[in-house]
Each structure stands twice: as C-alpha cells, then as structure tokens.
Amino acid sequence: MNQTQSKETLKQAIRELAKAKNAVLLAHYYTEGDVQDIADFVGDSLALAQKAAATTADIIVMCGVHFMGETCKILCPGKTVLVPDAEATCSLAESCPADRFADFVKAHPDYTVISYVNTSAAVKAVTDVVVTSGNARQIVESFPKNEKIIFGPDRNLGSYINAITSRQMMLWDGACHVHERFSVEKILALKQQYPDAKVLVHPECKGAVVKLADVVGSTAALLKFAAESPAQTFLVVTESGILHEMRKKCPTKQFIPVPPDDAGCACNECSYMRLNTLEKVYACLRDGRPEIQVPADIAEKAIKPIQRMLEMSK
Ligand code: 13P
Ligand code: SF4
Predict the structure, then answer these.
(1) How far does the centroid of ligand 1 lie from the alpha carbon of residue 72, in Å?
(2) Could you tell me the distance, in angstroms and rounded to a whole number, from the CA of residue 178 to the centre of ligand 2?
C-alpha cells in the first residue's frame, strides 16, 4: 500500500469509528488539511463553540487546542470530550496564568472582565463575558462607553478593539507566539511583488501589521472576505492552516502565506495545532482518551460568561 492509499484508509477508518461511536469531529481552520477533511465541521472559535453547544453526539472530538476542548466540556458536561493530543495547548492562553489573572481582577473590583476565548477554564471562571475575534467588537460595544473594562489576555486584539470602539479597556499583557511574529517588512516586500493583492490580517497580530490590512477579522471573517472579494490575490497574515480552506473555497484565486520575520522558520504554523494528526485522531477515538475534564466548581462559574457570549452572538 502506498502512502496516499494508507492515508485514505486511515481517513475512512476514522469516519467509520466516529459513526459507530456516535462521535462528532470538530476541527479548527488551523489544523492540517487532512484533519480538516475528515471533520464533520470546520470553523473558527465561535462557530466551534456554537456547534459543540448544539450537538446531539455522545462524543466530541475537538481537533484544535486544549482551551477549545475545555469550552466543549463546559458546554456539554454530560458528553465525553476527547482531544487528539493533550499537549496541544496555546501560547496565548498560557500567557495568562489563572492565579495572576484572578489577583488582577480582584485588585479592580469595579471593572467588567472580558476574556478572549483563548484562555483556560479557570480564567473564564473569573470573567464576566467571553469573546472571540469574531464577536469581540460587538460585545465590547454592547457596554456603555464609560464602562470600566479589563480585557485579557491578548494585548494585540485588545488594542485593536480599543482603537475601533474608541475605548480604553485595561489590557492584560499576553500574546500569541505565531501572530506576534509577522513583520511589516515582509508584508511590504510582498505588496511590491503583488501590488493588487489584498492583505488579510488576524487581529492577534501587532498593531503595525494590522495597519497594513485590507481586512482584519477572525479566521471565518477572513475566509468570507476572500470568497466575496473580486480580488484574485491575497496575502494571508495568520496561521497557514487556513490556506487549505481558502484554496478549497476559491480554487481560482491565489493565496500567499506571509512568512514570519525569521526567514527559514515555520513560525506561521501553530506548533500546538499541528499536534493534531490523523493517527492521533484515530487513536483517541479508539481508546477514548485523552479526555478533557474540568473541575465542577470551575465549570459552574466558567459556563456563565461562555453562555453570555453565545446569547449575545445569536
Ligand atoms: P479564530 O478562529 O476565532 O479567529 O481564532 C484564532 C485562533 O488563534 C484560535 O486559536
Ligand atoms: Fe493559540 Fe496562537 Fe496557536 Fe491560536 S495560533 S492556538 S492563539 S498559539
């Protein structure tokens, strides 16, 4: 059997096992193309949470990172939530340790706490409302202009939302190791080479990079823009896994992944997302592990700001 045949056999085996176990496979756009291809649903962080909340499956396999699995478990405490690799964490979530964040919140009792979904369940437990990059603007704008707000943990997304909503939210000093690496110089050089290209930027990027964007948005928003735009060429300034769906949706258009600042490294790939392989998806379904567990006292608190977000995003 050659490599392509064995990959196709593995994909078929995963689908059969998922069916036999009444499992739903959810995947983020940043996972590798083969994993996206076998998923029942591929989406951005908001859509994945919405899908998890609505599923009737007995088992959710969350092909993404740990906080996404936690969100599924919090929303579906009675279901089994599996992740292909328990080591698939998130540098942004890790830049916000729960004990330090809780102290920060305690020190500012008159502030409303808005947390990006890229946080641990324990951080969500001390949060008033969760946001994703897809609904952050709308949710922040639902509060009065003079509301005192703590926004964590992504300083880049927080600065961007401050700028477009004319707020002065107090920001936690966290960031994503992938999005922080995109450089203005690389984008400008590519713009010279492809003058008609539109620049698609995720708001986790630094402010100087966001300024070069034709569109700033969540992974789903960037995809939508690419599909609807009459432009033929796009510079993609986010994790390169999204190119799979972009090329699938728009086969005649050209998508150019912007390399990170350090030539030669693959830093526009999220090393955590890439831990989701077909082999591990199969093994986790077969063995029923690694399984996500969230302590009951934390889940009880964390579900409130997640549900508030889902309500506000209808
Ligand atoms: P979205 O898919 O919500 O844009 O999130 C990007 C991300 O970094 C997920 O970890
Ligand atoms: Fe976290 Fe960044 Fe990876 Fe997204 S791309 S999962 S924010 S480390």
Answers:
(1) 15
(2) 7
Long-range contacts at 126-131 (CB < 8 A, ≥ 24 apart): 126/98, 126/101, 126/102, 126/301, 127/302, 127/305, 128/305, 128/308, 129/305, 129/308, 129/309, 129/312, 130/305, 130/306, 130/308, 130/309, 131/309
What ranges do the domains of the chain cover? 3-87+273-296, 92-175+298-312, 179-257
Q: What is the CATH class of 179-257?
A: alpha beta
Give 2 Cα–ligand 1 centroid separation in angstroms: 35
Residues 6+ apart with CB under 8 A from 220: 29, 43, 44, 46, 47, 134
Is 132 touching ligand 1 by the criterion CB < 6 Å? yes
Domain 179-257 in the same topology as domain 3-87+273-296:
yes
pLDDT in tens, 86-133: 999 999 999 999 999 999 999 999 999 999 999 999 999 999 999 999
Is any ligand 1 atom within 6 A of the Cβ of residue 31?
no
The CATH code that applies to domain 3-87+273-296 is 3.40.50.10800
Distance 223 CA to ligand 2 centre (A): 18
pLDDT at 267 over 70: no
Instruction: Tell me the pLDDT tens digit for each residue of 243-261.
Output: 999 999 999 999 999 987 7
pLDDT digits (tens, 9 = 90+) for 174-190: 999 999 999 899 999 99
Taking the whole predicted model, whether its pTM rises above 0.90 is answered as: yes
**What pLDDT does 3 receive?**
78
Superfamily name and number for 92-175+298-312: NadA-like (3.40.50.10800)
Nearest CA to ligand 2 atom 2: 176
Residue 90 CA, ligand 2 centroid: distance in Å: 5
Q: Ligand 2 pocket test: pick from 65, 242, 269 the residue with the most ligand atoms within 8 Å of its Cβ.
A: 65
